[in-house]
Every structure is written in C-alpha cells, then in structure tokens.
Amino acid sequence: MHDDQAVLDLVSKYLRSVYEGNTHGLREVFHPNARVEDVVTGSFRSRSADQYIEAVGSRQSPLAAGETFTMAPRAIEVLGDMATVTAELHFLGNHFYNVLSLLRCEGRWLIMHKLFGSADR
Fold first, then answer.
1. Which residues, at least 6 apart from 94, have a Cβ–Cβ distance to it below 8 Å?
2. How far is residue 70 CA from its own chain's centroid?
3. Can you give the chain as a three-state secondary structure string?
4. Could you say which of 5, 39, 90, 105 would form a disulfide bridge with 70 (CB–CB 3.0 to 4.6 Å)?
5. Rounded Cα distance, 86 and 114, in Å
6. pTM higher than 0.70 for the full model?
7. How far apart (Å, rounded) are the C-alpha atoms in residues 8 and 18?
8. How far apart are CA 39 and CA 43, in angstroms?
9. Residue 73: which residues within 8 A CB-CB, separation 6 or more?
C-alpha cells in the first residue's frame, strides 16, 4: 500500500472513532506514548493518549447525538517514516483543527502527537 494511502486510512479510522466515540479504534491509531495537547479550555493542557481516549469515551459521541459526519483531513504530508496531517472537525457544537504527527513504527503508522485548537478564533 502506498504511504499516502496508509496514512489516509489511519486518519480516516481516527476521525470515524472520534465521531463514534470508539475508544477501541482510538487505541489502535495512537501510539501508547502519544501526547495530546491544546488550549481550548483557556490554558495549556497536555494529556497522555489514554487520558484523551478516556475523555472521548466519557462524553456523548456525535453519532449518538444524531449528528452527521463532518470531519475530514485537509492536508497530508509523508516524509519517509514521518507524516503530518491537518484535519478539520465539526461536532457537538465545536469546530476544531487537528494537527497530527505520525511515525511508522515497526511497519505500522501511528499517531504520536495530536495538537488541536478551535477553528473559530
């Protein structure tokens, strides 16, 4: 499989898992040591992937809220065993940009870092 397609497949699984509140799917796309960082609460917040995934699992999913799927990658760049993806997500009254850093680890692409913020600022 071409690297761009493999990265796109992983990001599609990530976005679908966020939409569905699928914590199992999120655990499959994040590296166990990944970090998730933002300032959407008004101050800097840094969490482990597990903490982020638990938060996703504890809220109502956009799917359960009856929302349509409105999340999509906007840019993908693959550089050897590294990749970056910018995605736009609309859900639960929010509009976010995500910047994802990926690494190919043992032949498999995984999210190593998620940086996100409000697209409405």
1. 118
2. 14
3. CCHHHHHHHHHHHHHHHHHHCCHHHHHHHEEEEEEEEECCCCCCEEEEHHHHHHHHHHCCCCCCCCCCCCEEEEEEEEECCEEEEEEEEEECCEEEEEEEEEEEECCEEEEEEEEEEECCC
4. 90
5. 10
6. yes
7. 15
8. 5
9. 8, 11, 12, 15, 85, 86, 87
Query: CA 117, CA 114: separation in Å to the nearest integer?
Result: 10
Chain mean position to CA 36:
9
Q: Look at residues 39, 40, 36, 17 and name the one whose alpha carbon lies nearest to residue 28.
A: 17
**pLDDT tens digit string along 14-51?**
999 999 999 999 999 999 999 999 999 899 999 999 99
